[in-house]
Amino acid sequence: MLFISINSTYLTLNTSIIIYYYPLVTSINEVTETQPHVTIYGNFGSFNINNNNDSTSIKPGLANITIDIDGSIYTSTKDLNIVPLVIEDQCGDHSLCSGNGYCYKRRCVCSKGYGGFICESQINQESKILPDDSLPSAVITSTTERFDISIVSIQELDYNDHIVKDVLTPSWTPIIPINQSIHQYSFKHDGYIEVIATLQTTTNMSIQTIFAGTAITLDTNTLKVSIAINGWRYRSNLNTLRVVMKVDSEYQHIKSCIEPSLTNGTSPYDNNLQFIRLNYNGSALYGSFLPVGLSDGRPFYSFNQLINVSSSSPAGTHGNSTSSTSYIGINMPQCRQCVIDPNFNILVDHADGSSNTACLDAQSATSISFDTWKIVTIVVVCGVALAATITGAIVYFKRNANVKLERKRIETRLKQLNI
Q1: Residue 414: which H helix or E strand, with range?
Q2: 212 within 8 A of 290, measured Cβ to Cβ
Q3: Could you tell me if 38 and 29 are in contact, meaning their C-beta atoms sit under 8 angstroms apart?
Q4: What is the mean pLDDT of each run of 10 residues along the chain (419 residues)?
Q5: pTM of the prediction?
Q6: Contacts of 101 (CB under 8 A, 6+ apart)
Q7: Cα 2 from chain centroid?
Q8: Is the alpha carbon torsion for 386, 389, 392, 393 positive or negative?
Q9: Under a CB-based contact definition with an 8 Å cutoff, are residues 299 and 340 in contact?
């Protein structure tokens, strides 16, 4: 953004001009390792794409791309995702999705009332979803668990994933509710950034929808969170955005030898976070992430990551409860409007911890919590664009090197603001 000030006998002017960077990529179509054609959207005029790899195919995973137009450079290591020609089946034993769904394009589609990565658990129909009146956050509760889901920060990252701008989002303005199941909130910053968050609860019926070209089924007792970021003014054409969401979890102990646990799964070829599981005594919050988003209305590749997890026993509880905080990062390229779309619910496994049998020893209980998980669904999407000369080099996630540093920084900053 460029500020202009003119003072003369005939004119006084103080204004700002929005600068759109050149070259710039905002979205790119999905590419397989043998696909010869790539479609790129952005601001770059016309150019040729060269494959600098000597082989006829490019290795799966994140690839390095570069656009050079008369000396003006756009380069990225996190926009272009090469999809393997053959993807491992992720539908469980014998591709049966635990007998509670069916396998479609190597992923499970669960039958009504079931959830989890391989449809292994039932959705808890007794859980309650309580949206906040003033903030785009919601509490999901069951008999022994409470999960508080919120948006805490929007960050601008440079090429090396260092944070160059960090906008915390503690204050929102509620918008008049559309109906009892849909709540909207507005957040404005610096006079030009606007974020619209929408919370939708599906308490009485399931909903089928499509986001970024991906079919999504929202079962009953699901929280759907849509976040649209408009008007962000980037400091460089190489910078990107990341939304940070927080899940505060609290568990009431009913068996002293069972402790809460968290597990997560990542894609085998690009390390993208696929799901998280916050488990305790037969129920869990499950987060499932799609590696796509919307940038200016077009699908883009989104890298999701678990930034940090911490746990403690709240003061005054005398060991009767345990709490934990998880931070999840949703990355997106540059866009004028970026959209993400997470969904949440609580799943339950009646075979795990719900009976009145004697408490298992700690080792067995920990093993069960890893084997019989259940949860909430977070489907994430955001928007942005990418473009470039494909070098075919696999970039093995440089951002992991900065994760530890970011964990400390985020925790310190949020504690200072009592978030």
Answers
A1: helix 403-416
A2: yes
A3: yes
A4: 64 64 82 77 65 58 82 85 78 88 84 87 87 92 88 94 95 87 92 91 79 80 89 91 93 69 85 86 81 89 91 61 89 89 74 40 34 32 30 34 53 57
A5: 0.77
A6: 108, 109, 110, 111, 114, 119
A7: 32
A8: negative
A9: no
